[in-house]
Each structure stands twice: as structure tokens, then as C-alpha cells.
Amino acid sequence: MSEAPLPEAPEKIRCDACPVMCYIAPGQTGACDRYANEAGRITRTDPVILLSHALEGGARIVPFAVRDWDGAPVPADSFVTGIGSGTTYPDYKPAPFIVSSRIDGADMVTVVTEAIFSYCGVKVKIDTDRFLGHEGAKVRVQGEVIGHVCTAEYGSQMLSLGGVHHLTGGSKAEGRITCDALLRLCNGEAVEMVVDHGSSVIVQAGQPPIVDGVPERRMRVGCGSATIGMFAVQWQGLVDEVVVVDDHITGVVSEHQAGKVLGWPPTGIRIKGHRSTPGRYFKVSEPGLGWGGTKLTDPLEILGEWNPKKGARPGLTLLMVSTTGEEFAYYVLDEALQPQRRDLPDALRTSVELIDENCEASLCTVLFMGGAGGSLRAGVTRNPVRLTRSVQGRVTRLTSGGAECYVWPGGGITFMVDVTRLPKGAFGYVPTPALVAPLEFTLARADYIAMGGHEDSIRTVDQTLAEGGEYPTAASVQPWPRR
Ligand code: SF4
After folding, report:
1. Residue 215 lies in a domain
2. Residues near 192 by Cβ (< 8 Å), separated by ≥ 6?
3. Atom of ligand 1 nearest to the CA of 18
4. What's the predicted TM-score (pTM) here?
């Protein structure tokens, strides 16, 4: 009896959209879930996204590839984004979509791609005075270091996360967890991180930070000195002394220039801290989660002996308040010149509420930062440095998923973009590990051709709809099972 022939095995085909080079079985997706083997062709799994002001809500997301297109007319102002467009690794090929259009009567070209960024990271701004960690402290996710605490700015703490050293320079786990954290941050998800010798913080773009389990509510109105400057006139005549407690600069109204200008009398107060200029004190405490970003839970700890020769007297009134107005206390000096806590008078409550009212909502801001000055330029032009010069000279406009980018001066095309300005889910990843971000380069058609652009690949939106936009792979076939 002869053996029955084995059923023909389905063929895997190779995706060459990134260095991982997955072999993908029919109906399956590759390691990044961005590409699939669809009936023997490698296709991008997400639709390309068009933005248009003519569509309801100012912008609408529509599928682009022929297989998804419903045949509806494309509005004249449609802008093809890089989201879902696919990439061109190893970059000698023209970018997936090079689309011509007329903008304000001018012939323009937009070159659209999804760029793979091994060199990328995020800059995070967290609106809080709470102590997250010392400058330079390591920031960890699931125990792996993904970045560090950067500078403290005005009412905010900066974090610098990702970068090539964490993505590819450490252990596999470090690279994988860094890539995953960056991806989630860029796609608007919440990521919990822990700072060495500091706090835990949950960061989500456009949302309040949660520090050690407590959602932050208010960004401070200013430093203690600035708060004195803004509100001294509101306190005049209502209280004898005001101290605005702040981790950076604590202000004292009777000594501050704002008080002097108003003729505020001295009170004999003494602050334990480094006096900078009159009425401005540094380092009244250690940083922490207490009053004004200090570790204080009792503000009286920063006061020394009251001096009767310089104005201290029984009955003198004192308001102590933090820079957000969230913490406040009112005191009256007794016969021994010791502050005794009393209820806050209604007249002063209004001024404390005014501080609170002037504080802005505390948010996390996430800026993606990447370097687009490398090999992907070859997908735009045969002479890559001309693209760099054109972007730097503002002849070419760079956007990411339709969002405006800030391009750093100097060498390369190093840009930053606010992730909340891109449609949700615009970022992807490949397991090298690296992030994938959409990019669009828009310039006049004449300038594009002059820079050595891929003229033969220019298509109108309508042409692209008619011809489809699937990934043009050579689809090298691997026999199954692999030998
Ligand atoms: S990981 Fe790379 S090779 Fe694999 S499917 Fe994704 S883009 Fe293609």
C-alpha cells in the first residue's frame, strides 16, 4: 500500500519591515502585530489615517488601503498621516506613501512613513511640588531602570525616560520594559514608576499624576516669593504676618520687597533657613510630600524665637499657607510670644481661596523625542542631507500623525511632539526593541524634486485609493515546516 501524500503545508512569508524579519504564517501577524500574512501577502494590519477638517468633529479617521475603503469621496483638504502607513526598512525603498496635493493653490508633496526609532525617549513634565526623587535618581518600572529624574522646573518635575542606553545598552529585560513603558506612555496609557529613594508615581499623558497613591490636584501658583508678590496687597490690614511655605523659596511678607513697598511693619519673625534676599528663604526643610513640597506637616518647625525688639508682641497674628493654598494655618502670639493656633478668620479665608483659584490643574505632559535624521531619509530623497537641511531651513514641515513637531536646531532631525496631539494608538513598536512613530514631511513639489525626491513614486490621494496602499514587500517565501 502506498503512503498517502502529506497535506501541503501553508507557506510562511517573510516580513522585511524591520530587522527582526519575522516569518509569518497565513492568517497570522508578526511579532509586533503590525504586519500580517493575508492570503500570501504581507499587509499592514492598521488602516492608514487621513485627517480632514471638512469631516465632522474637525478630523475623522478613515481606512485608506483599497481593501478597507468604502468608496466615499475624499475631502479636498485630506492630509495623509504616517499612522498605519508602514515603514521602509532597510530604507533604500521610497517611503510607503508619497502623496501630492494642492494646498492654497500650491503643488505640494507629503512623504509619509512610520519610522523605527532605536534612538528615542520621552520627556515627562509632572506638575507637582511633591518630592518625587533627587535630580539624577533612577526611575524604575517593574524593577528595571528606564530613565532618571531630571531638573525641577517652575511647579513641575521633569523626568527623562528611554533613550538608546536603556533600550539597547542594558539587559534584555531593561530594553523590553523600557520599550513597553515608552509605548504605553506615548499611546496615552498610565504607567506606574518608582524613583530610587523617592516616591512612586503614576504618569498618564494629559492626566493628573498620582504620587504615592494620592492624585495631585493643583499645580502651585508660584514659588513662595512669587505668591507673596501676587497676594501681599490682599493680606494688608487683615493679618500681621504671612509666611508662604515652599520647598524652593519660602516667602515672608513683612521682609519681602512686596511688603516693604506697601509699608508693612516688621514683626520680629525668624525663619530657620538660608536667607537669600529679604523675605526669601531657601532650604527651610527637606523635600517631601508635606506643605509646599517640603516634608513639613507642622509649619511652625521652620520658625525660630520671635524677637520683641523687632516688633514681636502678644496678640500678633500670623497666617502660614502653602503655595497651592491646600495647607494653611492661622496663629496668634500668646504672652510668651508662642504661636497658638486659632480658626482662620473669614476675611483671610477669601485670600487662601484666591491662591487655590489661581492654581492650574496638575497634569502630566509626555513629549516623544526621536531622531529622524538617519536612514529613513533615504525613503524621502536619494540625497538624505538635503532633507535635513530642508527641515532645518523650514522649507519642509515635519509633523507626526498630523501633530506639529518641535525640531531641535543643530545637526540631525531631532524632534519632540506632544503625544496627546496624535490620534490615540498612533505609536507602535518592534521587538529590536524600538518604537515606531508616524512621520510626515510636507514641502512644495518643486522643492521635493530639487532635493532628489522619489518623483516616480508621487501619487495623488485618489490614485492611491484606486491602486491601494498595501506594503510592497518582496515576500520571500520560507518552506513549512522550516528546515
Ligand atoms: S516585528 Fe518587524 S519583521 Fe516582524 S512583523 Fe513586525 S515589522 Fe515585520
Report:
1. no
2. 141, 200, 201, 202
3. 2
4. 0.85
